[in-house]
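>> received
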Amino acid sequence: MTPPTVGVEAPEVVEPRRLPAERTQERLVPRYRQTVGPLLVLVLAAATAIGVTPGAPSPAGAASPSAAVPPKPLSAGTVQIDAADLAEGDDPVAITVDLLTGYTDATLEVTGTGEADATDTGAELARESSTAEVAVELAPADEPADPAEAALADATGSTVTATLTANDPDGSRRTASDTVWVDDTGDQVLVSESGEQDLRLQRVAALERDGTVSPTEADALQAEIRGGGARTTESVTPGSCVAVCVDGAVRWTDSGGGTHPVDRAPVQIWDEEGAVDVLVTTVTTDADGEYTATIDNNDGDATGRDIYVRVLADGPGFTLPQHLDSAVHTDVPNGSQVIHNLTANRVADNNTAFAVRASLVFAGDHLVDLHGSLFPTVGVVFPDPSGSFFDGDRLHLLALDRFDWDVSLHEYGHFIADQIDIEANPGGPHSGSDNLSVSRGSKAIGIPLAFGEGWPTFFAVSALRERARGLGIPHVGDVFYDDTEDQVIRENLEIRAPLGEDNERTVTNTLWDLYDDMADGRDHTALGAQVVWNRLDANDPTTLSAAYQVFSANRTNEGVNCIFTHMNVSPRLGGPSTVNIRATRGPPRLSWVRGNGGSHRNNSFTVRFARNSGTVLFTSPVLRGQSYTPPATRWAMVRNQSGGTIRVTVVGTQTDNPRTGPYRSCTKAFVIGG
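>> returned
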C-alpha cells in the first residue's frame, strides 16, 4: 500500500517538550532499616474477606469491601498491596485480600524481584479474616553513577507481588495478584502501583526536589521517560525533495518478541526550538505502519529545521495518552529525505501501550464490519493501578494486561454492550465459577450480571478470531480466553460450561457455540459473527433468557435448542436421541434433567409430542417433576397420527422472580417400526 502523503502545512505552535511536564505524585520515604542488619525489612500483613465469611453469600448488590472495582473474570478474588503504607514505612504494610464466596484452600504468597527479596511465602489463609507476616528485604541495585542516567534506566526488574491462590467451587485452582514497582535509591524508597514509567517519573521528581537536577533538566528527563525507549533507525539523505521529506515505519513488539506494523497511528512531525517546539504537520501510518510527509524547511533562522517525530498511541475510535519520540535531526538541509523508523519495545509502559493499541484497532475494525461504523471515541487509561475495567466512560487497563488482548477487549466489549443496549449489568463481584444468583444472593442480580459479563468475553475472543487469527501473536485468535501476567487463566470457549443461565461462562460458551463453525456435542449451528450481532443489536436482550427467545423464536430452532441443552440451560431428555419402537408399543416413561443450576434450576415443565413437520399433536399439563408417562389413549392418538416419527421435547421454565425461559430441549425421536 502506498503511504499517504501530506503537503506543506502552516506550522502550529504547541508545547510538547519545553514547558514544565505534568508532575507525578511522589511517594518518598526515608530509608528504613532493621536495627540488626543493613537491609530494609518490610513486614507485610494480609487480611482476607474483610467483613465477609467465605461460603456465605454477600448481601445483594454489595460491592467488594476491599476493592474499588470487581475482580477480573475467572480470578480468585482481589488483592491489593497498600502502596501508601509501604512508601511511608508503616509496619506492617497491609495487603487486603477479598476471596470470592465459595472458594477454599486459599493461600497468599508474596514474592520480590530485583531489589526486593521475599524471605517468607505461601502463608495459608483461614476461612475468615487472617494475617500473614511476610518479610521483604530491599537493597539498592547496581546502577549508573550519574543520577540522570539512573532515572532513565530500566525500572521493570524490582517488584513486590502478592498472589492469592484458591480452589473455586469446581475444584479448579484460581489466582489473583497485585504488583507494585519499587526503587530503593539508597536514600529513600519509591513505590508505584501503576508501573515502571510512573516509578521512573517519581525518581526524576525526587532528583528535582533535592536539587540534584534543575527544573529544566527534570523536564527533559520526564520527556525522555514519557516518549523514549523505542528502537530506532534514522538517517538524513540528500535528495530531490522539494523541501524536506520525512518518512519512516512504526512497529510494535508482542510478548514473544515478534514485531508488527502500527496501523493508523497519528505521526506528528516536530521542529525542535529553543523554548517551544513547533508542530509542523500530522500524518497517519498506513496498514504497513509506514508514513510520509513533505514539509517546508523554514526554521526561522535559515539553518534548516531540527526534526523529530512523535507517534501517538491514539487510534480509530479511542484515545490512549502514550507516545513514542524519535531522536532529533538538527539543521536538516533543503531537499533532504529524513527517515525515522521506530519499533516499540515490550518493556516500557509507553512502548507496551502500542500492544494495547493494536488490540483496540483490531476490535474497532471488527466493530465496523458488524455495525458499519465506530461508536463515539472512548478514552483508555493505561497503565491504571486500579485494575482493568470499564467505568461507564473510559477503559482502564493494568500495566500487566499489556499483552492480554482478551482482557482489553473484554473491557472494550463492556463499552460496546453499553452502546447497543444489550446490558443491564448491576456490577459488583462476579466469578466464572459461580451461579451468580447464589453468590450475589439475588436472581434479579445474577441473571443480568452473567449476561453482562459473558457477552464481553465472547466479543473479545470472537473479534480476535475474526480479525487477528494467523498473525502469530501469542494467545491471540484462538478459542481461549487468556490472562497471562497478573494471573494465569486459559479458558476454552469450545467446551461445555453447564452451570446455567446465571453463570457468565455458560453465557460466553453458549454465544460462542451459536457463532462458531466447529461442530461438537449437540452443537451443529454456525450463525457467524454478523448474524449473532444483528439479532442482539436488533432486539437488545440483557439476559440469556431474552437472548434465547431472539435466537430460537417461539422455541422452534432445533439447532439453538440443542446448544442450550448442551450447556444445561434447557432441559435434557434422558436416553438416546433416536429410539426405534414397535407400532403396538405402549406409552414410554420420559425423564429429563431440569436444566440450569444453583438454587434456581428449571422447575416447571411441559412435554410436547409433534410430527416431523413440527405439527403439535399433544402437550402435557404443567409438570413439577422430572418424568412423565403420557396416558395410553393420548399416546395411541399421537402414535397413529404421527406419520411414523414422534418428536418429543421438554420445555422448562424457571419461575423464581424474575421468571426466565421457557427453554425447549433438544428433540428425542421415536421412530415407529424402525
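>> The first strand starts at residue 12 and ends at 13.
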